[in-house]
Amino acid sequence: MAIRIALRRTGLTRAMIAGLALTLALSARVVPAARAQTPPDPPIATAADPKAQELSGRKLELRGMQDTIDASGDQRRKIESEIALIRTDRAKLTAALLDASGNVSDAERRIGEAEARLETLTGSEEAIQRSLTARRAVIAEVLAALQRMGRRPPPALLAAPEDMLAAIRTSMMLGSVVPEMKAEAEALAADLQDLLQLRASIAAERDGLAGDVQKLRADRLRLAALVEARQSALAAAEQALGAERNRVAELAKQAASLKDLIARMEAEVAAAARGAAEARKADEARKNAIAAPPPDGRLKTALAPFKDPGRLAPATAFIETKGLLPLPAAGSLRRSFGAPDGFGGAEKGIMIATRNEATVVSPSDGWVAFAGPYRSYGQLLIVNAGQGYYIILAGMERINVNVGQFVLAGEPVATMGDGAAKTAAAIAIGAAEPVLYVEFRKDGAAIDPGPWWVKPELQRVRG
């Protein structure tokens, strides 16, 4: 009776004591909750029908695979019928491409952010579990002390007044020990509550991540079909495509630098030469414009071209698109322009670590001056943006456009790999994931691409 009164006075409730016991049991196992919730193994088959049970399992597995194949086939047929309606309309096809690539980029960004949050939550959960495990000895001592006090309670003064000295000694001991026990119990209860909330948050993040991954698969399927439709239409109109590709590969072997490569391409490859001529024509038409727009209307004029998917040439000068261009891929910025390159020099571009198989879009309108493998760059894409500006993208696994083709800002042009093939950029920063290298050039010299990016997009990449 006296021990109960003393515990109540110090604030150590039954719930706290029960929490101590629960914490001791919980900290004894560091395995994740997901493993603990694994359903029990199915009953062992009897020796009489092992083949029947194996056959039944195979049928269920086959049925699940067939359902998945049917669903994928239905989705592809739906996409193909949609593409058939817009194949002959270039503007509609390009608009669908831009919409699909935007959806894919958004999904990849959301998945990356969710994975980062999930990693943080998992780290917090592991930290709490390690803390509980480290305090197992303290919890055991507290529970043992409570158990001993329960077996040998202090004497009650009303029943045995002659034991007043023992009662006073017990009261003094409880007065010094119980406050520490109360503080420890409250700390452990708070840790337990945090652990439960973390596990609920982790479960919610995993559910959301699974939904985003499912949507990303569907968006990538639609994007791949649209890209295939676009390129098949272009290939049908290009008779000398095979010979051009062979010439591009030969020039890539001979070129000593990117500047040399661009010059050789535009001088010796017909498709690249046409693209360069179109770029010069667009620059000349812009110079011959009757009047420049007023300063207040410049932003509106620069934004308007991005809303016209049917354009065949940039409707504004590249220099006027500062602060308007989208980043070519969602990811994290690993190295900035001008940062030390590790070899005594400075970086001429930026490096973005992306997800596996991330979609790469063209940052700007322009004509493809080169598309193919080049030295340690991996797959290299060069876009002629006009006025002597060139955009270089490197490190992709697959390029989806041809030399001489006009591409729009935000239009899908390539796909990243899984990081297995190491490019010079990936080796330079020691990255395990795919790394996209982006470089802007003006009249053969590298320039800082920072002023051209849309500021909210740059903040997302830096985050």
Automatic annotation (TrEMBL):
Domain M23ase beta-sheet core: 347-449
Domain of life: Bacteria
Keywords: Coiled coil, Hydrolase, Metal-binding, Metalloprotease, Protease, Signal, Zinc
Signal peptide start and end residues: 1-33
Cofactor(s) demanded: Zn(2+)
InterPro entries, alphabetized: Cell_wall_metabolism_enzyme, Dup_hybrid_motif, M23ase_b-sheet_dom
Coiled-coil residue spans: 97-124, 234-282
Alphabetical GO biological process terms: proteolysis
Cross-referenced Gene3D superfamilies: 6.10.250.3150, Glucose Permease (Domain IIA) (2.70.70.10)
Record Pfam families: Peptidase_M23
Gene Ontology MF terms in the entry: metal ion binding; metalloendopeptidase activity
Protein name (record): Septal ring factor EnvC, activator of murein hydrolases AmiA and AmiB
